[in-house]
Design goal:
By secondary structure, the chain is of the alpha+beta class. It is about 70% helix and about 15% strand.
């Protein structure tokens, strides 16, 4: 079983204590920093919006990016699979 460590991160001026696997600590801290940077960007871009709106916009932004990345990864995986099948067929024919 992997060891969990307790860490504290601040997101949008709110502190959260999390139990994470040791190797995920840097990932979580970097994610919090990335979120905070996007929150700051949206606060400057949309003055007067409340924090709930800013957080929703931040969440939608990253969810859309994740969806796009998933789609690209799926395409790459399909392309690799197709190429490996072609290589395998060439090897079978060569033997």
């Amino acid at each position: 079983m992997k060891e969990l460590v307790k860490i504290s991160v601040t997101v949008a001026n709110r502190k959260y204590t999390l139990s994470v696997e040791n190797e995920d600590e840097i990932l979580i801290r970097n994610a919090a920093e990335t979120i905070n940077n996007k929150v700051k960007e949206f606060l400057l871009q949309f003055p007067g919006k409340d924090m709930q709106d800013i957080m929703a916009m931040t969440l939608l932004n990253y969810a859309a990016s994740l969806g796009k990345s998933d789609k690209q990864n799926s395409f790459v995986n399909e392309e690799l699979h197709s190429r490996l099948q072609n290589i395998n067929q060439l090897l079978v024919e060569a033997v």
